[in-house]
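Please, structure for the following, as tokens.
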Amino acid sequence: MRSLDAEEGAEWTKTTLEAEPSPLRFLESVESGHSAHDVQARIGELLGVKEGTSLRMDSQAKYGALGRGEGGC
């Protein structure tokens, strides 16, 4: 990870595993054509992830957020 205007100073990012599903959320596409929101909601329900905690983003930004640990599960 690094600033868009920085030529140096990149740093590695990593995620951590959470012990409890309640603070977790899904990171998924805003576009329903790129994501199965109903299927993901059901998976979250089965895993005990709280309803309404989906973070919806588009483009490759969601993968950067996930890598920083900001996306959820």
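The CA atoms of residues 25 and 72 lie 5 Å apart. The longest strand covers residues 27-29.
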